[in-house]
Amino acid sequence: MPDAVELIRAKRDGQTLAAADIRWLIDAYTRGVVADEQMSAMAMAVFFRGLGPGELRTWTDAMVTSGQRLDLGSVSAPTVDKHSTGGVGDKVSLILAPLVASCGAAVPQLSGRGLGHTGGTLDKLEAIPGWRASLSAREFVELLTTVGCVICAAGEDLAPADRKLYALRDVTGTVESIPLIASSIMSKKIAERTRALVLDVKVGRGAFMRERGAARELAQTMVRLGTESGVRTTALLTAMDCPLGRAVGNAVEVEESVAVLRGDGPGDLVEVTLALAREMLALAGIDADPAAALADGRALTKYREMIAGQGGDPDASLPPARHIKEVPAEESGWLRDLDALAVGTAAWRLGAGRARKEDPVSAAAGVICLAKPGERVERGQPVLELRADDEARFGRAIEVLDGAIVIGTEPPTAGSAVLERIG
Length: 423
Fold this sequence. Notes:
Blueprint: H1 4-12, H2 19-31, H3 36-49, H4 53-64, E1 80-84, H5 92-101, E2 107-111, H6 121-125, H7 137-146, E3 149-153, H8 160-170, H9 178-192, E4 196-203, H10 212-228, E5 232-239, E6 247-249, H11 251-261, H12 267-284, H13 290-295, H14 298-309, E7 323-328, E8 333-338, H15 340-352, E9 366-369, E10 376-377, E11 382-388, H16 394-400, E12 405-408, E13 418-422
Parallel strand pairs: 1-4, 2-3, 4-5
Antiparallel strand pairs: 5-13, 6-9, 7-11, 8-10, 8-12, 9-11
């Protein structure tokens, strides 16, 4: 039997762990044989020493085999999923899953909840009355077969090692490790058994990866893990210095997603969504134009079917905020920058996000970007609209927005929201 302390020492000292030792460690930690404090020490050792390609491949596979894998064998359409590393205003999944499904693919999307300044897909959809995030395996496959797309929470038995380790990393300062991020994301996606996967790796102030080089390394690592596991995998690096779209929150992001599906959404959000849709369809081997599916209403119809299939009412009114406060421009000129991290943190402080996983969130709270970089504003013109159920939250939200709005005499240089493809 391996000894946990000896394995910690070995990794601490930069040694390569044997495959059998890694498998024992992950299994023993999942079963509670290896204590949290020991796995915390191992996570910190990995944080500083990293994992070699072979170690990471074994580590990820051990996390996959710590639980059960989904059986999508009865789904006849080609399956393809997408994962985002998280950003501010990133409601792409709500549009993308029905859009790609309306073009003939099956999209089995297992999503999560928000933490800190980044929003969670499940929190957004739960703003819709009646919508259910938790589905049985039978319901999941049935909806995937009949509707073509599902967005729901991962089951308790899917990569349980990751669930334990993720919670541990969150409280031990080891979240930012590229091998641990990659294995966390990819273990769930590999266990999902989708045939193809597109990764949306966000880059910038409002993203988990602020530097492009680190984002590229993470993307390359995940693409390699997916490919080696038999999942056709590509990645796009997309910009996250400024909020994506104009809405940041839960209900407000659902409303903006529906606007895109109706053909009336912000250009940056449409650009990223269509780029990811084209990648997904190419990996699935489907020759279709997602822009046409948006234009002719097919994607909106599929969205309504997906929401109704999970118990939601696509025609229901979404919760309104009790209180609204505007943040005006302090001078006239061109809006040159709008800090995504500050806006996301403001939405969190207004009640749209959570500090801990068990915290409740407000469906109605959030921020509307009334102006985006590249637009002209006049002194006193509202740039942001803050929404909250409790007006006492406005003070701390406005605090974090100090310096977030940058106005100048010249417009900023326009750039694409899609930065790079890793394939």
